[in-house]
Amino acid sequence: MIYVTNQLVRRKSLMSYKNGAELLPPSLLKEIQKYIAGELVYVPKPNKKRAAWGELSGSRREIQNRNKEIYSLYMNGKTVSELALDYCLSEDSIKKIVQKQRKLA
């Protein structure tokens, strides 16, 4: 879910709470309780299963599409200043996007 508050976009976390006593073998639970008890702990996925930034939410694809659009508009005559205003980005950001897209083309 996405919430818009004071012009900031916030995504509601999709993580859920799991009770360790229901998931872990008793011996492992006792070992973990030696280090932390009654607290919330995040257990990350193994690296091989981790998605890259923006892959699950679609943000990566949206930014790639935006950058392609910026490059196309630039190649069709829009100035860096115009693009910066249109996309609410700095002129330096637009220049970096154009340079990167030029290398990819």
What's the SSE blueprint?
Layout (H helix, E strand, L loop, with lengths): L1 E4 L2 E4 L8 H4 L2 H10 L23 H17 L4 H8 L3 H14 L1
Antiparallel strand pairs: 1-2
Helix pairs in contact: 3-5, 4-5
Could you characterize the architecture of this molecule?
- The chain is mainly alpha-helical and 105 residues long.
- It is 50% helix and 8% strand.
- It is built from five helices and two strands.
- Strands 1-2 form a two-stranded antiparallel sheet.
List keywords for this structure.
105 residues, disordered N terminus, mainly alpha, 5 helices, two-stranded antiparallel sheet
SSE order, one letter for each helix or strand = EEHHHHH
Helix content: 40-55%
Question: What is the general shape?
Answer: rod-shaped
How is the main sheet built?
2 strands, antiparallel
Q: What percent strand?
A: 5-15%
Question: Which strands sit side by side, in order, in the main sheet?
Answer: 1-2
Could you say which structural class the secondary elements and strand pairing correspond to? mainly alpha
End-to-end gap:
35 Å
